[in-house]
Amino acid sequence: MSWLLADGDGVILRLHVQPGAKTTEVAGPHGDALKIKLAAPPVDGKANACLVRFLADRLGIAKTAVDLLGGESSRAKRVRVGGVDATRVKRVFAIAD
After folding, report:
1. Which structural domain, as residue segments, surrounds residue 39?
2. Which is deepest, 9, 40, 80, 90, by most CB within 10 Å?
3. How far apart, in Å, are the Cα atoms of 89 and each of 12, 27, 32?
4. What is residue 90's three-state secondary structure?
């Protein structure tokens, strides 16, 4: 999966985010990224905070284990998530190989 890359004790996710959605949820693959809809507006870092909180909650990890590597002001983002493996991420987000 091009949106998911193992990285030592964690993974790197390539995401396409859609801020301002009705609900925060995984929408599925979007080209070479995983699309996530966010129920937060794209202002004052609210969408990024919502993304970090969503990933941490869904994966059962601390928010401090989620690092935004790139795309802070873009819909295309790269995020490193520590303490999880690719199998767990695919299972939690119900994404088949």
Report:
1. 4-92
2. 40
3. 10, 14, 16
4. helix
Whether the predicted pLDDT of 97 surpasses 70: no
Q: What is the mean pLDDT of the chain?
A: 94
**Total domain count, the chain:** 1
The DSSP-derived string for 5-69 is EEETTEEEEEEEEEET-SS-EEEEEETTEEEEEESS-SSTTHHHHHHHHHHHHHHT--GGGEEEE
CATH classification at residue 85: 3.30.1200.10
Residue 74 DSSP symbol: S
Kindly state the tokens that stand for 66.
């989620």
Q: What is the pLDDT of residues 41-77, one digit of tens each?
A: 999 999 999 999 999 999 999 999 999 999 999 999 9
For 45, residues 6+ apart whose C-beta sits below 8 A from its C-beta are none
